[in-house]
Amino acid sequence: xRRIRVAAFGLTALLTGCAExxxxxxxxxPAFEAPFTIVTPVRxxxxxxxxxxxxxxxxxxxxxxxxxxxxLKPLDGRARYQFYIVNGxxxxxxxxxxxxxxxxxxxxxxxxxxxxxxxxxxxxINLRDFYVGGFFGRKLRFAVxxxxxxxxxxxxxxxxxxxxxxxxxxxxxxSTPRPLFVQFRDQKGTVTRTDDVVSADTLRGRFxxxxxxxxxxxxxxxxxxSLLFWDVAETGTPAIxxxxxxxxxxxxxxxxxxxxxxxxxxxxFAWGTxxxxxxxxxRDVDAGTDSILPTLRAVQPPGTTIGPAENYTRVELILEPKxxxxxxxxxxxxxxxxxxxxxxxxxxxxxxxxxxxxxxxIVTRGTQGGPLAPNVGVVVLGPGGNFNTLxxxxxxxxxxxxRFTNLPVGAARVLAIPFGGSGVETRATIISGQTTTVRxxxx
Length: 443
Known about the structure:
The protein is mostly beta strands. The protein folds into three domains: 7-42 and 221-350; 46-218, no CATH class; 356-442, Immunoglobulins (Immunoglobulin-like), CATH 2.60.40. It has three helices and 33 strands.
């Protein structure tokens, strides 16, 4: 096994036929249609908290709010997540710093190669104003401490997590996304603090849109949709289109993005621009006033990237933060986990795949018997182009394992690339109908 440097790999693929009005144009091949179904449960970002306080001179005093947030996609550039505390009576909002711990869930491998009980390892970080986000086995544990003598802080009743597009120029106004929120104090509608109630229970916040202490919305998946392919075998240019009705307006700062995904190899492509029945773009519909979207459509654009539909297993509608928008028509293995609706590629297309084998890559840190390494990028390359043909890429799961199925038989390169470090490589032979296991050790 030899050490390599991280490299970028391109895909060569085929294209889609579309008319100028955005409608899929039949080109002589059979049409395939499949319904979308709502995913249950939808994995939205979450916040849980506990408020710790006491009574002083008959008034409830909150000393700290401690909790966890999870499934927040890392943001791009200078965009960051930031906490605000909000007064439940007059909506006054001020930013608040927090102590943060980044929690990473690992699994261990014993001397016989068996997976042992997962363990949590915490990396403490000092007082911070911002959080960049993180998922794939990572979450934020936070502690917000309030001054007992600060009347502004002691009149706050909500903890709200905002998305700041530029952490150097923060703002809290009507256009600021506020997707996570939790109420830790009930002010009973009065400015008198002696009747305030601070819950001793674990508080479960909500994901949606915090407009004011009196007005919040919780995001819930809704609507119906259909997936349509035209399979043009003669030219290798399958066309794809999705149509939805009755979707809920996304929370401010988020938008709907269709993906075509191969669950067997981990390859995913964000594709298409969403628009309504009149052809108006829906990227900024989160700022609109309609709570329900009558129509959402998207068409795979012309290009030579995504390739034949039979190379994939499903199409998904995913909620993505605008501050971390995925690149269109680019092979991805990290994207938002908020799949709302899913449609399977029709079986008549999937059966076109050639005979294949499976690969299981187990990644550990330091030694073969070291801790299992989750969230490590694993790339499989085939023999074409001097072993530079991308066959699959995905992150190792919580057990340090990345699994690939429906790989073409023959020799393959397998690379493990940890975040921020150099990668390691080994070779494998894919055998028809069998699973090949390789082990890779990263620093």
